[in-house]
Amino acid sequence: MNKVNKNDVLTEGKVLPAIVSFTMPIFFGMLFQQFYNLVDTSIVGRYLGINALAGVGSTGSLMFLVIGTVNGICSGFAIPVAQSFGAKNMDMLKRFVAGATLLAVVLSVILTTVTVLLCDNMLMAMDTPEEVYDYAYEYLILIFAGIPFTFLYNLTSGFLRSIGDSKSPLYFLFISSALNIALDFLFIVGFKMSTDGAGLATVISQAVSGFACLIYMSGKYDILKLRKKDFKVNGFILFRLLSVGIPMGIQYGITAIGTIVIQTAVNGFGPITVAGVTASGKISSVVTCPLEALGAAMATFAGQNIGAGKLDRVNKGLWQATFLGFGISVVVFGIVWFFGKYIGLLFMEAKEVEAMGYAMQCIRISAAFYFLLTIVLTFRYTIQGMGYSTLAIFAGILEMIARCLIGILLPATFGFISICFASPLAWIAADLFLIPAYYVCMKKAKRHYSKAFHTESL
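Above: the chain's sequence. Below: its structure in token form.
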């Protein structure tokens, strides 16, 4: 029960095979998650109409702001756990797990209360079209009410990945995905519910996967089974968790602000354009899963190896992962170019020719620059895994500034095409910061970080 599979330890063996092996379950987990999100959108679009589809789509940037912040916080909380695991300091690992649990409870209550109360105001501030407003509100209010379950799954799965187990969260997501699909059909097709049915299905599925992960984690791994004394956390534990988790949450939030500005600009083009951009976003969410998974894997890889003092292994892993991502980007571009329209038909009828045209134009332009996204993901997550989450925030700020400038200044002159180039330009801005920032972090780590994790003061 206490033993961790040696294959889950990322500090030993060949670098690229270790990264790929750890990445694959994360990738399939993300793919399943996107799959049931696609089912939500597909059923909404086909059974409730294009306005309902646009309504759900118009909530995307707000969901990214809030849910992305939750994901970032939980990923940040998992980094000290991974570093303690790499340093083989299991007592400290338990204290970090306990502290993260306490903080997650407090933060989930705060975020749920604030977002539910401000949901209406946020949609109005984004100039959500009147035709889709009710659909958007019905869906979003339920997603926000389910934030505690989002915290639960992301925190527990983050703990499992921190000790090298990226497979178990996949199994629970598979069950959750199947349940989500069944509930979508039950609520929307069977019970004739509106977009609130899709939101309720998502929340219930998230809760199931979260509790399943918690039960499994507590039952299988003694190093993750908490004792009463583990909850006697001190200021150092809480500060360390918050100093990594909050910046990662803010990173998502800052990036989301830029997407909200872009979404507001898209809303000004009308429901058909909103539906097209929604379709483009959904396609992108699916095809970029391998890149996102590769980035997420690098956070744990860097965390464990920093904890073990293996800085050269961190550097080697980063570059091998980045070049692997470049190859994936080429394949993904081909998929988007030749098969993107067929993916779009999952949630939009073929007769919606104008909306499909917007979707294809947007996704093809973005996909041509996925190699830039690869750099953003591998470098940013590595920096965060090394423990320098605050520094990575500046990459998010640059992305936000780029998107805001594009969303505010360009649509009136260049029209819809400016929306299509918003993400590539934002990735360029982030890359220009992240690459030199990584080398700054590596120099700091060589001077201080490896020693810090092998002292009694940890």
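Confidence is low (pLDDT under 50) at residues 453-458.
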